[in-house]
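User: I'm designing a mutation panel for Threonylcarbamoyl-AMP synthase and want to avoid disrupting the core. Could you give me a predicted structure to guide residue selection? Please restate the sequence first so the numbering is unambiguous.

Assistant: Good idea. Sequence first, for numbering, then the predicted structure tokens:
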Amino acid sequence: MSSEIEQAAAVLRSGGLVAFPTETVYGLGANAEDPAAVKRVFEVKGRPPSHPLIVHLADAAQLDEWVQTVPAAARLLAERFWPGPLTLVLRRSPRVPLEATGGLETVAVRVPAHPVALAMLAEFGGGVVAPSANRFGAVSPTTAEHVRTELGDAVDLVLDGGNCTVGVESTIVDATSENLSVLRPGGVTREDLEAALGRAVPVPSTSDVRVPGQHPSHYAPRARVVLVDPEKVLVEAELAEQLGHRVGVLLPPSLAGTTVKAHAVVPVPDSLDTYARELYGLLRKFDQRGCDLVIASLPVEEGLGLALANRLRRAAGPRSVD
Ligand code: TXA
Ligand code: MG
């Protein structure tokens, strides 16, 4: 056991905060059973306390300690996808303090697929609440450097596990009944869920989701993000440049190789896997390059394209809620 993992477990036990890598994004972790530590997570993130957190566990075998009943479909998904980018919402057991669930009687649980996260969780032994390690509403971190830059001294320890391999957050499934639904599309695709269950799994439109924490504006860079049809990208970019904006362009595959008069032009990666891995880094890059406007289009909403479109829509969402 490396001394850094032991140190992380010690920080968690003493009520501190540890930022740690997962396969999706970096998390800002605290002991789930320590209400004061959980409160600090909300403070550091600037997140309203009504927004529930995900409890991370080392092993699916611990699930029954944290939730009351596990419907058969939820058990099947846990067996199939854990460790992995899937979060199950179930009825909370008394072990889960209401501070972690924003007062809800349900709790979100997941077993992450990252060796550093799993080592930390195993050494700590308990549940670790962890939202993405960014300020509320901002772009999620996919490197330890992103966390250090954004949260700095507010975190007691940052574990560096390299670049996140999935790059978008976990898929959240409401598994409180046998009628499952996807609350947030993510790293496990709807198609994967449906193949595992042998039936359709609805994905309610974002506007139908009432859970706190599913705000229309989220995952947003400083630059304003504008979504347009792929065939309008060139026109819109040039117009915005003429109006004096510093424009960043996420160039859709259909325009690959086209010259665009804009401040920063980044081609959308070829595969959806790569696009998901790189999306948040690209949004950060536009900010670093000083862009005040980013023009992008939505991918086809299949496979990881569903999660990518969800994050782009929210990056472009109304800012008034921030
Ligand atoms: O990939 C991930 O899920 C990352 C890594 C760190 O594990 N975590 C993450 O956490 O994305 P966060 O806090 O940024 O997003 C968790 C979302 C909340 O915004 C909320 O919408 C949903 O999970 N959630 C948590 N508890 C819930 C509950 N009891 N019912 C419904 N939704 C819940
Ligand atoms: Mg988040």
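For picking mutation sites, this is relevant: Residues 3-208 form a domain with the DHBP synthase fold (CATH 3.90.870.10). The longest helix spans residues 272-288.
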